[in-house]
Amino acid sequence: MPRFEHDSLSHYYAVSGEGFPLVFVHGLGLSHQNWIGQVPVFARRYRVITYDMRGHGGTGVSSGDTTIRTYSEDLNALLQHLGIERAIFVGYSSGTLICEQFALDYPEKTAALCLIGSYAKVKGVYMSVKTNAGKLTASMGLHKLLAYSVATSNAENLTQRGFFYRIAKRVSDAEALRFLNASERFLDTADLSRIDCPVLLVHGSRDRSTERYARELTAALPNARISVVEGSNHAVATRALSVFNVLLDEWLQHLPLHESQHV
Known about the structure:
10 helices; alpha/beta; eight-stranded mixed sheet; about 260 residues; Rossmann fold
């Protein structure tokens, strides 16, 4: 099992394929297995890296308070461990915050971003209610309820629901609470305007939680384009897998990438 050590924690990751590095960053309550529908497809042309954020899957749990930069530094440590100088990042939901922070802190390492169901600092009634509900569930130790919520929102069918439920049950409630608290202190959409790399924003037409952010990020990011997937909710990468894979593949093929830009 491939691992690296950072910040007194053991972190799990996986690598498949060869080519320009393509790093997938999962959301809260999930793991590297969130990307099982993408890894075999994109590993044909790219060096695909997935990993478990702290408190999820096979990665250790934080010992104290965290910020989004804490998780971004974990990502940077992974790239250093693998000797990667530059990569494309694909983030989903809470993972988009990590990608946004990384792009701000390490623009020279960020070739492009694909952000699925992206957002920034928690604001607005709908997102605030959703975040507070998650915090209450995590703080009360209602682990199975939190896992069920993650599974139902990400699964396309009953088989997938069971799969995601087993993943979500492994998540640390304390880590989930730390991340949710950190998301409330994160940057606003206007603060992300310094991200000038190519950005693909992918949003489901039925995703009420990040609808506002989709509009704001499209306007704020200078090199962003948006693709709205009709009929999909927040979980585009799993519930509209085939459509998403085509969108990502076509966008990747038009990026000005060169093998000399990475190790």
